[in-house]
Amino acid sequence: MTVGAAKFGLFAAAGAGGETGQGYFCGGYYGSTKYTYVNRLAFGTEVTTSGANTTTGGGYGISGCSNNGVAGYIALGSAAGTDVDKLTFGTEAVATLGTGLSLSRYGTASFANSGTAGYFGGGVTNNYRAETDKYAFSDDSRTSLAAGLDPGRGMGGGFANGSTAGYICGGVGGYGAQSAVNKWAFSDDSRSTLGTGLSEACYWVSGCANGTTAGYSNLGTANTTSVNKFSFSDDSRSILTSTLNDVSYPAGASDNGVAAYFGGGYSGTLAQSVRKIAYSDDSSSTLAATFADYRGAAAGLANSAA
Question: What total number of domains does the chain contain?
């Protein structure tokens, strides 16, 4: 696959690394307006700044994943239904891939087998989709998995267990909000469903992961401050209570080995605060810094090797 050169903007994607990286919270909407804002969070200093550039299209139902230390990939959702942008981390130059998603849709969830491939699963058209697309990082070529989401749904949240497996949590499907968690083994892209899903059926979900230790998922439209934690050793779930601020769907980004950050969101009013969950003990706190520009239903992403 080739990379198109017609569109340029800024984003980054979820990954792993130490204190030198950055999280990015981008896109989203409020009312009937779709935004291209990018807010940057420096992990080392926990200072937020506005991105120098923007996403190539404003929208909601966007998602991103990362070939950590190399480039990030983002599906633009309602902004441009098949477009996927690629950000080169070293220069922050963005180009739209020559080959987009296999189907125009918004509300995909994403995860990455960093160094190998990024995945965009599910979404919404005039119904709820199961298709899961895979982009090989070596040449940005796209294939579609034989096993997509079960059930088909959109607006779930994704995270990955290192180079072992990717997960998509929750979403909305034909029977309303879902609690199912699907898991794809990176060895053969086979899909299974966890015996224990989210503690609440919900959508507008965001997720992030602490390397090969655990994945964290907020509970979106369940309008709760709790976060679900899935231990990768056995896929067991625990519930972290009173963890987030009172927002319904913040976006998440991970500084691997250090902390998860859930920022912004919307619950009647827009939120600009950032909540931090320390991986050492799962304690939570609110950063002093806030976002200059933020809207709901955005994507939270990170390049922790920056």
Answer: 1
Task: Report if residue 3 sits inside a domain.
Answer: no
Residue 35 belongs to domain with CATH number:
2.120.10.80
d(CA 193, CA 167): 9
Contact 51, 27 (CB under 8 A): no
- Name beta bridge partners: 216: 208, 229
Look up residue 154 and give its DSSP letter.
Answer: B
Residue 227 lies in a domain: yes
Burial class (CB in 10 A: 0-12, 13-18, 19+), 285: exposed
Residue whose C-alpha is closest to residue 29's, from 204, 273, 245: 204
3-state secondary structure of 24: strand
The rounded average pLDDT for each run of 10 residues, N- to C-terminus, in the chain (306 residues) is: 30 38 81 81 90 75 87 81 83 86 94 94 96 98 98 96 97 96 98 98 95 96 93 98 83 89 81 92 95 78 71
pLDDT of residue 6: 30
Is residue 256 a part of any domain in this protein? yes
* pTM > 0.85: yes or no: yes
At residue 35, the pLDDT reads 82
pLDDT in tens, 172-224: 999 999 999 999 999 999 999 999 999 999 999 999 999 999 999 999 999 88
Q: Which domain holds residue 141?
A: 22-303
Cα distance between the two ends of the chain:
26
| Distance, CA of 72 to CA of 68 (rounded, Å) | 7
Rounded distance between C-alpha atoms, residue 238 and residue 231, angstroms: 8
Tell me whether residue 269 is exposed, middle or buried, using C-beta atoms within 10 angstroms of its C-beta: 0 to 12, 13 to 18, 19 or more: exposed
Kindly tell me the number of DSSP H helices and DSSP E strands found in the chain.
Answer: 0, 26
**pLDDT at position 305, please?**
56
Assess if residue 8 is contained within a domain. no
Residue 58, H or E segment: none
Of 60, 42, 63, the C-alpha closest to 51 is 42
